[in-house]
Amino acid sequence: MADEVDQQQTTNTVEEPLDLIRLSLDERIYVKMRNDRELRGRLHAYDQHLNMILGDVEETVTTIEIDEETYEEIYKVRTKKGVNLSSQIFFCI
Amino acid sequence: MEVSHSVKERTIAENSLVILLQGLCGRITTVELRDESAAVGRVTSVDAFMNVRLAKVTFTDRQGAVSHLDELFVTGRNIRYVHIPDEVDIRATIEEQLQAIHRVRCFGGRDKGRREFPCAKHR
């Protein structure tokens, strides 16, 4: 059975910013998100909305707690097992 | 395997990763919301806009209070993460969903039925 009405084409050249992400498929990437969140994980899939499927992913949320005299930064690191789909990517590096 | 009745939704789903979420119907997953609450339950349906319906849900809100709900509807905009169960084969699930859409689209065979793309080239 042929793929009749499948209009998706994949080119090998880098033409638009999303193509750069394609180069990172199956690699470990670092994703910066809104609200001081970061993800590190292996990129399995992405789409035009930058929804991403990441595996072995770790999410880091940075919250700042201010002591009265000292300025302290507190990191909360949460490790998620398995695969995640994220729908709120702001940009990724 | 339920395919949306709307052509618009089918097209949107077919061209994005939502199609994978649609393939998760019937599985128990965790949906993390943007406001840091989380819902664990069985996925009833997912539409093209990532609106998710869950059944038999354990809902943990921002403060940590746990509640049990028979059904929960989450707007796509409010979803931050969807956990994909380990046993799910992502590529196979996506292909199955695409085939389901293809079956719906080509219903009735080549020369019968109203065609979704009037001048579609058949390979």
TrEMBL record, chain A:
GO terms for cellular component: Lsm2-8 complex; spliceosomal complex; U4/U6 x U5 tri-snRNP complex; U6 snRNP. One of its GO terms (biological process) is mRNA splicing, via spliceosome. It is found in: Nucleus. Keywords: mRNA processing, mRNA splicing, Nucleus, Ribonucleoprotein, RNA-binding, Spliceosome. InterPro entries: Lsm3, LSM_dom_sf, Sm, Sm-like_LSM3, Sm_dom_euk/arc. It comes from the Eukaryota. One of its GO terms (molecular function) is RNA binding. Residues 16-93 form the Sm domain. Plays a role in pre-mRNA splicing as component of the U4/U6-U5 tri-snRNP complex that is involved in spliceosome assembly, and as component of the precatalytic spliceosome (spliceosome B complex). The heptameric LSM2-8 complex binds specifically to the 3'-terminal U-tract of U6 snRNA. Component of the precatalytic spliceosome (spliceosome B complex). Component of the U4/U6-U5 tri-snRNP complex, a building block of the precatalytic spliceosome (spliceosome B complex). The U4/U6-U5 tri-snRNP complex is composed of the U4, U6 and U5 snRNAs and at least PRPF3, PRPF4, PRPF6, PRPF8, PRPF31, SNRNP200, TXNL4A, SNRNP40, SNRPB, SNRPD1, SNRPD2, SNRPD3, SNRPE, SNRPF, SNRPG, DDX23, CD2BP2, PPIH, SNU13, EFTUD2, SART1 and USP39, plus LSM2, LSM3, LSM4, LSM5, LSM6, LSM7 and LSM8. Belongs to the snRNP Sm proteins family. This is U6 snRNA-associated Sm-like protein LSm3. The lineage of its organism: Eukaryota, Metazoa, Chordata, Craniata, Vertebrata.
From TrEMBL, chain B:
InterPro entries: LSM_dom_sf (IPR010920), Sm (IPR047575), Sm_dom_euk/arc (IPR001163), U7_snRNA_Sm-like (IPR052840). GO terms for molecular function: histone pre-mRNA DCP binding; U7 snRNA binding. GO terms for biological process: mRNA 3'-end processing by stem-loop binding and cleavage. GO terms for cellular component: cytoplasmic U snRNP body; nuclear body. It holds the Pfam family LSM. Residues 16-88 form the Sm domain. This is LSM10, U7 small nuclear RNA associated. It comes from Cyanistes caeruleus.
